[in-house]
Design a protein that fits this description.
about 350 residues, 8-stranded parallel beta barrel, 3-stranded antiparallel sheet
C-alpha cells in the first residue's frame, strides 16, 4: 500500500507531500487507516530512564513539529514519538524551497530552520492527545536569540513542556539555525547542561514527577572535540543522549544535483557518521548511560547495527518517509533477533 501512496506523494514538492500525507493520515483515523498501515504490532518492550517503551523504535523529531498528529502517528505502532523542535514563539523558518529529495540515496536535505507554531501551541496539543504511549518534546532556541542568550529559550520551553510530556530533548545540533552548534563546544555545553539539569530537578519537585532530559548532538565532529564534549555530557547529570542529528558532510552524495544545497543531510548517507558517534558515546559514557541511536536507518539491519553499536533505543525519520510504516515493525523484529 505505501509504495503506491509514495509514488503519488513523490510527485509533489517535499513539504507539500509532508502536509498532504499527515493530513490524510489524520483523516484516515476515522476508519482505522493508520492501524491498518502499521500492520501487526511487535511487542519488544524496553525499560529506560524510568519509562516503559512497548518497542524500541521511535519517530524522531521534525516530522510532527507542532504535535498536531500525535494520535494518528501513534496508531502506526511506534514505541514512542518525539514532537518538535519547538521554540518559545512561533516562527516561519527559512525561505522556501528548503527541503530536497535525493531519491537514489534514500536521503533528504532540509534547511527548515525550526519552523513551528510556538511552545504554547505544542503544549495544548500535548494536553489534548489521546495517544497513551510515550511522547517526547524536542526544544530549541528562537532564530533571532543570540547564542550566548540561548539558555533562556531552553529554560522557557523546558518549563512549558515538562508537565505534559514523558521526556524532553534539548536540540543544540541542528545545522539550520545560525551558530546553534556552538552550544556543543565544551564551555557553553557545560553551562547549558548545568542550568537545565538544575531546572529539571526543580520542576521534578514542583510537579512531583521526574521527566528525563536528553541532549541531541551532531555527527560532524573531529575525534578530540567529540570526546571532550562527551566527557562534559557524562559529568553533567543529563539523563540521556540522542546520536545523531543531520550532517553537513556531502561526501556520500557528491555529484547529485542537490548536493550543494545548504542544510542538513539525513537518510542512508548519514549512517556511517552517526554510528561512529554512537560507538564513541557508548565507549566514553559507559554501559548504563541511556543512548538513542538515530541516523541512516532504512531497514531492520540498520536498527540492529545501532543496537550493536550501543543504542538502547532507535529513532527513524527519513527512512520512514522512504519505506513507510512497515519499517517500524521490521526494525523492532530485527532488534528482537539481535538480543
Amino acid at each position: 500500500m505505501y509504495s503506491w501512496l509514495r509514488a503519488g506523494l513523490f510527485r509533489l514538492p517535499p513539504e507539500t507531500a509532508h502536509d498532504v500525507a499527515l493530513n490524510a493520515l489524520a483523516a484516515g483515523r476515522l476508519v482505522g487507516l493508520p492501524r491498518l498501515m502499521g500492520g501487526c504490532r511487535v511487542a519488544a518492550p524496553v525499560s529506560l530512564m524510568g519509562l516503559d517503551f512497548p518497542n524500541p523504535v521511535g519517530l524522531a523529531a521534525g516530522l510532527d513539529k507542532n504535535g498536531d498528529y500525535i494520535d494518528a502517528l501513534g496508531d502506526l505502532g511506534f514505541g514512542f514519538i518525539e514532537v518538535g523542535t519547538v521554540t518559545p514563539k512561533p516562527q516561519p523558518g527559512n525561505p522556501k524551497p528548503r527541503m530536497f529529495r535525493l531519491e537514489e540515496h534514500q536521503a533528504l536535505i532540509n534547511r527548515l530552520g525550526f519552523n513551528n507554531k510556538g511552545v504554547d501551541h505544542l503544549v495544548e496539543r500535548l494536553k489534548s492527545r489521546r495517544f497513551k504511549g510515550i511522547v517526547g518534546a524536542n526544544i530549541g532556541k528562537q532564530k533571532d536569540t543570540p547564542v550566548d542568550q540561548a539558555t533562556g529559550d531552553y529554560r522557557y520551553c523546558l518549563e512549558k513542556v515538562y508537565p505534559h510530556c514523558d521526556y524532553v530533548t534539548v536540540n543544540i545540533s541542528s545545522p539550520n539555525t545560525a551558530n546553534l552548534r556552538e552550544l556543543q563546544d565544551t564551555g557553553p555545553l557545560r553551562e547549558l547542561l548545568a542550568e537545565l539539569c538544575q531546572l529539571r530537578d526543580q520542576l521534578g519537585e514542583d510537579h512531583q514527577q521526574r521527566r528525563p532530559v536528553l541532549i541531541k548532538i551532531a555527527p560532524d565532529w573531529e575525534d578530540q572535540a567529540l570526546l571532550a564534549s562527551l566527557e562534559v555530557i557524562g559529568e553533567s547529570g543529563i539523563d540521556g543522549l540522542i546520536a545523531t542529528n543531520t550532517t553537513l558532510d556531502r561526501t556520500a552524495v557528491d555529484g547529485h544535483r542537490h548536493a550543494e544545497q545548504a542544510g542538513g543531510l539525513s537518510g542512508a548517507p548519514v549512517k556511517a557518521g552517526a554510528d561512529r558517534v554512537l560507538r564513541a558515546a557508548r565507549e566514553r559514557l559507559g554501559p548504563n548511560f541511556p543512548i538513542i541511536g538515530l541516523g541512516g536507518i532504512t531497514c531492520g539491519e540498520d536498527a540492529a547495527d545501532k543496537r550493536a553499536a550501543g543504542a538502547d533505543l532507535v529513532q527513524i525519520y527519513t527512512g520512514f518517509i522512504y519505506r513507510g510504516p512497515a519499517l517500524i515493525g521490521e526494525c523492532a523484529r530485527a532488534w528482537q533477533n539481535g538480543s
